[in-house]
Amino acid sequence: MDTNINNTEKEIIVPEKEYIEKVVSVNRVAKVIKGGKRLSFNAVVVVGDGKGNVGCSLGKARETQLAIQKAVSKAKKNMIKVPIVGTTIPHEIIGSNAATKVLLKPALPGTGIIAGNSVRSVLECCGIKDILTKCFGSRNQINVVYATIDALNKLRTREDIMKLRGKF
User: Fold this and answer.
1) pTM listed for this prediction
2) Which of 23, 39, 88, 95 could form a disulfide with 150 if both were Cys (CB 3.0 to 4.6 A apart)?
């Protein structure tokens, strides 16, 4: 007689969502203390699923890998849903953070992503294929990423506006 009871226990493996992770920048920072300098790293990471969800975060740690891991886990928690019309955004928008402003303009199919490195990483993770962008003010990579997320967060579809006005 078989006494193996473990056959009744079944493991349910839930696949984790596939995310696109892009490291925008890694900076070495130093804190001056009594004994000298204490070095640490900060990393800006953008995470998205390529289907309209995107998040970004800044992680800080004594080692680069730990900083990146912290940033990825925080970015997954701070995801926002972006309305996408076809392969572009519904309308023109300006996002800002600190001294940085980022202009996002919808583009025709086949245009591609016309953007700098920081903005491009956010838009690629989001799943936007055709867009024109322009960065004004400070070109600090951290501020540019947060300004782009701010602009994407402000986007509204035509249906959303109609519901707000009570016309739909």
Assistant:
1) 0.86
2) 95
